[in-house]
Amino acid sequence: MPQVVLVNPLIPPNTGNIARTCAATGTELHLVGPLGFEISDRYLKRAGLDYWPHVKLHYHESLEVLKTLHQLRGGRWLGFSVRGNYNYAKFQFQADDWLLFGSETTGLASEVIEMCDSTLYIPMSQSQVRSLNLSVSVAVGLFEAHRQLGYLE
Question: From CA 104, how far away is CA 136, in angstroms rounded?
Fold first, then answer.
């Protein structure tokens, strides 16, 4: 099953909403530090409400620590970015993919994008809109992967 990775998230309610989405789908959630909040942040907890016991949460102090786990488990790193090369809806997801998302203000850093096997974008028809909210982007990407893999049946 695909996994969600948040690299340096900054806004607690976004991470809480993503955690809820991950709990609802049985998806592992990896947070890569430094974070812009404490894991115990009340806004983070409030956004996830009572779903936290159902979140398969992993915290990694750095991207290097996550890379070690990734090497053990395998799978592709798919970076979501407004600068992505492939439309996420036309991309063929695999069960062992890792869906990487960057911080709310800067997205994925160029050095993280360089580590990705592919980069994906979510098309938007309004050019004056820079990007979607992080929690919306994760939900859109994750549910498309689940749809393609038959997990929504």
Answer: 11
> Count of domains in the chain?
1
In the block, residue with structure tokens 């398969």: 56
Structure tokens, 111: 């050095």
pLDDT digits (tens, 9 = 90+) for 42-97: 655 665 556 778 889 999 999 999 999 999 999 999 999 998 999 999 999 999 99
Question: How is residue 95 annotated by DSSP?
Answer: T
Q: What is the band of 130 on the pLDDT scale with cuts at 50, 70, 90? A: confident
Looking up residue 15, the CATH number of its domain turns out to be 3.40.1280.10
Domain with 128, as residue range(s), is: 3-149
The structure's pTM equals: 0.93
Output phi, psi for 108, to 5 deg: -75, 135
Please name which of 131, 63, 132, 123 lies closest in space to residue 98, comparing C-alpha atoms: 63
Estimate to the nearest angstrom the gap between the alpha carbon of 119 and the chain centroid: 13
In the beta sheet, which residues pair with residue 57?
29
Alpha-carbon distance 116 to 78, whole Å? 6
And the tokens for 100? 């990487």
pLDDT of residue 127: 82
Q: Which amino acid is at 35?
A: L
